[in-house]
Amino acid sequence: MLTGLWNLGAFIVALSILVAIHEYGHFWVARRCGVKVHRFSIGFGKVLFKRIDKFGTEFVIAAIPMGGYVKMLDGRVESVPDELQEFAFDKKTVWQRIAIVAAGPIANFLLAIIAFFLMYMIGINSAKPIAQGVIENTPMSVIKTDQSFQVMAVNEQQVGDWEALNLALVGQIGESEFNITIKTLTGEAIEPISNYRVSLANWVFDPKKQSIISSLGISPYRSMVHLQVADVAKDGAAFAAGLKTDDKLLAVNDEQLKDWGQFVVLIQNNPETPLTLKIERNKQESLLVLTPQRHQDSGKGYIGVSPVVDPYPEAYRVTLKYGVIDAFVKGVEKTGQLTKLTFDTLIKLVTGDISVKNLSGPVSIAKGAGMSADYGLAYFLGFLALISVNLGLMNLIPLPVLDGGHLMYYFIEVVTGKPVPEKIQEFGFKVGGAILLALMSIAILNDFNLL
């Protein structure tokens, strides 16, 4: 319950920022083009807060934080007195109208650059993309080495951490093959670098069940997890059963434990079921009765205990933190990379190279917002930038109900020298609205695993 509320709160904060910046882009350019703005609203429905400036514009925060709008003086939707004709949106030149409409998506791209800039200024802790091996019978099994290796590049695009590798691999969805460059970690001064051609002919990826990295067959390096207790939560089932720090876990219901992952699966699969746990304490074996609690959200069992884990090697860590100029350059580069990735993904959705099952809706976005907020401000800024790029590019899709649709009509007007007839525009808005509603419905259904 608390997780859901946290995710919702983070989602509302993120959405409000994105909408405010997007609509401010429209508002700022409209004002400079001499258009009278009636209302600048964040949210819909009942007005919670309202302020009127000296130009007569209402600045509103409304009860439903699921969008926003800028209402301008427009002769197409209202009667405009003669003395105000010059301040109406529809009376402005076609290039002014293009600038006003394009300003929203452009503001989102600028927000992404600023968010990434701040993220890199604050700095984020990450890990180098080091794998301890590959999984047999997967696309990555073409890599033949018994040693750990670091992924250096995908299609000659450098990847410095796991997040960069993940984005590079996402860009390969729908492709038939790609190149990967690795460095085998031998411990020598000069470690060999190898290139492999990875075929995706038989690759099956289900984003609901696995990450793209694991589905391709990369096994990330993980510190050794021991079957020994490091900490016990005082309000958990483990504490109630009498489990203590430094206890070694030997078996559950006479099933010998081989690793911590096996123990976790047994606990998760047996909520509210008494289990006989064999432990070793002070070199003496004993039995405890352990009854896992049921998690409210997932329904899986949990006991409130953490294992002893070997320290993660400092040599495998990386801190992404830069000075002012480098952070700005990185922010621009990252925004460009995400823009290209999002654009390519949209094209693959249209061509059918990517299934519509990969679309995500508000629930998935809310979970992402909550998780990034958990990790701290820098990670939340990165998430905000990612969604901002997606929002900006999505709004440029030439569907009449979106900014891209309006821009399409205006560019037709530039070419033909006259506006697109109102009837055609109205028909386009209906068709565009229906398509957008269908896409939103698919995304929401995906969120609830109904497709």
Write out key terms for the chains shown.
451 residues; alpha+beta; six-stranded antiparallel beta sheet; four-stranded antiparallel beta sheet; 42% helix; elongated
Helix content: 40-55%
Stretches where pLDDT is under 50 for at least 5 consecutive residues are 360-374
Q: Classify the secondary structure makeup into a structural class.
A: alpha+beta
Order of helices and strands: HEEHEEEEHEEHEEHEEHEEEEEEHHHHH
Shape: elongated
Alpha carbon gyration radius: 27 Å
Secondary structure layout:
Elements: H1 2-32, E1 37-52, E2 58-72, H2 94-122, E3 124-127, E4 130-134, E5 149-154, E6 157-158, H3 162-170, E7 177-184, E8 193-199, H4 212-216, E9 218-220, E10 225-232, H5 237-241, E11 248-252, E12 255-256, H6 260-268, E13 275-281, E14 284-290, E15 293-294, E16 301-302, E17 305-309, E18 317-320, H7 324-351, H8 362-375, H9 377-395, H10 403-416, H11 422-447
Antiparallel strand pairs: 1-2, 3-18, 4-5, 4-9, 5-6, 5-7, 7-8, 10-17, 11-12, 11-13, 13-14, 15-16
